[in-house]
Amino acid sequence: MDLDLPSMAATIGVSVPVLRFLLCFVATIPISSFWRFVPRTVPRHIYSASTGALLSYLSFGFSSNLHFVVSMLIGYISMAVYRPKCGIITFFGAFGYLIGCHVYYMSGDAWKEGGIDATGALMVLTLKVISCAMNYQDGLLKDEDLREAQKKFRLLKMPSLIEYVGFCLCCGSHFAGPVYEMKDYLDWTEGKGLWSETVKQPSPYGAVARALVQAAICMGLYLYLVPHFPLSTFTNPLYGEWGFWKKLGYQYMCGFTARWKYYFIWSISEAAIIISGFGFSGWTDTNPPKPKWDRAKNADILGVELATSAVQIPLDWNIQVSTWLRHYVYERLVPKGKKAGFFQLLATQTVSAIWHGLYPGYIIFFVQSALMIAGSRGVLLIPLSLSCLASSTSPQNAPVIYRWQHAVSSGLLKKIMTLVNFAYTLLVLNYSAVGFMVLSLHETLTAYGSVYYIGTIIPIVIILLGYVIKPPKPARSRPQKKEQ
Fold it and tell me: Which residue in 45, 67, 327, 356 is the catalytic one?
């Protein structure tokens, strides 16, 4: 029986292409569940590659697979031809092709208008091919030249073509993530490491049920909220007549509403990865031990919405991509023997912005994010300086949030600091998110200007204060004298 896609799409208020994508996306769950019954090694790679390609074709059409093939070939050919620099070649080659697709399809505009194209999936695939090539390049280096993550994920031999394609398209994870490592994928398909016969394998069904319930709640909230907070309001003349606090509250609600769409998507991805068995990441140390599914997790909803520090946001939002950025951009920009600084943070956020697309709103959002995180490290200067607990310092000793929080013994003052930082994070995160949602330079600056650029000014002021004020030394308990 043919599905009446137009009627179904109209019922839930989405376009036909989006509905087709959603149906294929949800289908990743039953398809991933059959993975458990596929014989190991080559049959598993074939199953991963063929089901991923089929879902891509049904979602986006034949051209989507051509785009994926180009990106995968860039990585595989670079590994085969010039191993010493294959990671760098793949990074710029795959990113360049992704940017070209972003520009050609103007994907941001399509997504805003309820459309869909293959560039979202290509974004995830790009990260996979880059990580694989970089890990293969790392296989040439000595242990003393590698960081812990590089030692853990490096590849000593080149993956076969079927292993590589299976890794890229497995479980339909290229649709929306999560991003994972080739080393883990090979262990999973070959029954090694966490998936060996010596390790007890947990039942996935409880965790899958939790992820599906979470997905249903997230989608329900999104569908309820989105009609009440349209982005078009930012350019409506009536918006300009609102008071400052009403405008700021509307910006918060727009950001809050948009996040539930991503929570829904990532919950479905989580269910698919968990039911395949690949999401298993070990057992807890509790008694009795409980299975962990960290590899499948892409967002901690409460962690994001109740974050008491902007530093916490990358740890709880788009978790696997944040991990990728840390391992393949942030850490690799830090010279050996040196500490990371604002440059590495800004460069990482810029790469993340370009990965999303070349819209001004993306660039502004991720620059804002760098300011937000850097400002959060010093946001607690204000209440502490008012309490006469700070003194001048040199720039290299600029305050870090955790130093401030742990530097004071007063329980009340710590609570005040936490509350101030929570309010700061809430303000700047949702203010910054407007650029990510509206994308255009005019709309972004109009929305920011309507609240006097408060979310930009406050982080900058706090960062500058960090060059003047330093946190007090942590309070230390005095050693007790031994009884004679």
Answer: 356
User: How far is Cα 453 from Cα 432, in angstroms, rounded to an integer?
Assistant: 10
The per-residue pLDDT for range 2-49, each reduced to its tens digit, is 567 777 777 777 777 788 888 899 999 999 999 889 998 999 999 999
The alpha-helical segments, DSSP class H, found in 237-295 are 237-240, 244-276
Active site residue 174: no
DSSP annotation string for 322-342: HHHHIIIIIGGGSPTT----H
The predicted structure's pLDDT at residue 392: 34
pTM of the model: 0.87
End-to-end CA distance of the chain: 90
| 245-283 pLDDT tens trace | 999 999 999 999 999 999 999 999 999 999 999 999 999
Q: What does the pLDDT look like over 97-153, one tens digit per residue?
A: 999 998 888 777 666 666 678 888 999 999 999 999 999 999 999 988 888 899 999
Distance between CA atoms of residues 5 and 27, nearest Å: 16
Q: How far apart are CA 416 and CA 425, in angstroms?
A: 14
Residue 394 has pLDDT above 60, yes or no: no
Instruction: Give residues with Cβ within 8 angstroms of 53, minimum separation 6.
Output: 65, 68, 169
DSSP 392: E
Half-sphere exposure of 169 (CA within 13 A, CB side): 28
Residue pair 205/293 in contact by the 8 Å Cβ criterion? no
pLDDT attached to residue 105: 82
What's the mean pLDDT in 421-438?
90
Which residue, 339, 267, 260, 274, is CA-closest to 304? 260
Q: Following DSSP, what letter does each residue of 181-204 receive, concatenated? A: -HHHHHHHHHT-GGGSTTSPPPP-
Task: Select from 67, 123, 65 the least CA-distant residue to 95.
Answer: 123
Locus of tokens 């991805």: 269
Contacts of 326 (CB under 8 A, 6+ apart): 348
DSSP class of residue 470 equals: E
- ∠ Cα 275 277 279 (to 5°): 90
- Residue 17 has a pLDDT of 78
What is the reported pLDDT for 469?
A: 64
Could you tell me if 393 and 470 are in contact, meaning their C-beta atoms sit under 8 angstroms apart? yes
Alpha helices in 357-466 (DSSP H): 360-378, 381-386, 401-407, 411-438, 441-450, 454-465
Give the tokens for residue 59. Answer: 């979602």
Would you tell me how many other CB atoms lie within 10 Å of the CB of residue 441?
14
